[in-house]
Design goal:
Layout (H helix, E strand, L loop, with lengths): L1 E5 L5 H12 L5 E8 L4 H9 L4 E5 L5 H15 L6 E4 L11 H25 L4 E5 L9 H4 L5 H21 L5 E6 L3 E2 L9 E2 H14 L8 E3 L25 E2 L2 E2 L1
Parallel strand pairs: 1-2, 1-4, 2-3, 4-5, 5-6, 6-9, 7-8
Antiparallel strand pairs: 10-11
């Protein structure tokens, strides 16, 4: 029985994460803290369907005051049991070059501040898992594959998020934490991504499966979801459940 906190839960991947978590039995998922800058109708509907177990918490990951207030709210619910799983999902994917600072604040500084703020509660939790939602386009090694995709600030910040994940995994390893990042795949989250590879439910199911099954052996790793039949897809993306080679440039068969 674990408690989860998910950022950016009002839409897309974040909303599907909290929806699937709420569908799990209480014996598996005790409390879901669904955080977002504002509450929309689908999020409120989930809260109404799962009173007491599904907790709406206002958070803007670029606003440290809102995060501080959120910690107080979560602590008032979990008490000495602490928080088991933190999923840093909130992100920005604006494809322009001029927004690098804003994108960095959401995609990198936001998760960093969230981890720092919730670490005392996570230390009290039984599971001690921190998952950062990343993307395969943040892999330096795979940039020859994704060269034509026009999202420089997104790529840069996801690469930085991967490095931040490794640093926290090293810092917290002796305390029994598992800190890792997962690429959920290119998902059909909205009309703009209607031609994406996978339904959002498929990607999120893969992510949550990794949260449940991954122990300390996943600490510091950048993982890909597994979707049967997509292991050797000839297109841009493959979903083989393995580590993504994020740290070097690929020349031929070598990684430098």
């Amino acid at each position: 029985m674990a408690s989860y906190l998910v950022t950016g839960s009002s839409r897309g991947i974040g909303h599907e994460l909290v929806r699937q978590l709420a569908a799990k039995p209480a014996s598996e998922v005790s409390t879901i803290f669904a955080t977002s800058r504002s509450v929309n109708a689908p999020l409120q509907e989930l809260a109404d369907q799962h009173p007491g177990r599904f907790v709406l918490v206002p958070i803007d990951v670029t606003d440290q005051d809102s995060i501080k207030k959120a910690v107080e709210t979560v602590e008032s619910v979990v008490g000495d049991n602490g928080l088991d799983v933190l999923i840093n999902n909130a992100g920005s994917a604006n494809p322009t070059r001029s927004d690098l600072n804003d994108t960095f604040n959401v995609n990198v500084t936001g998760p960093h501040v969230m981890i720092q703020a919730f670490l005392p509660l996570l230390r009290k939790g039984a599971t001690k898992r921190i998952l950062n939602i990343s993307s395969s386009v943040g892999s330096i090694a795979k940039q020859p594959v994704y060269r034509e995709l026009p999202a420089p600030s997104y790529k840069i910040t996801k690469a930085a998020l991967n490095m931040m994940t490794v640093l926290y995994s090293q810092e917290l390893a002796d305390e029994g934490f598992t800190v890792f990042c997962v690429s959920p795949g290119w998902l059909k989250t909205d009309a703009a991504n209607a031609h994406a590879d996978l339904p959002v439910g498929t990607g999120v199911e893969g992510v949550l499966g990794m949260v449940r099954s991954s122990g300390v052996e996943a600490n510091g790793k950048f993982l890909n979801i597994h979707v049967p039949g997509w292991e050797n897809n000839p297109g841009l993306n493959q979903y083989d459940g393995k580590e993504l080679p994020w740290y070097g440039l690929m020349y031929g068969s070598s990684v430098y």
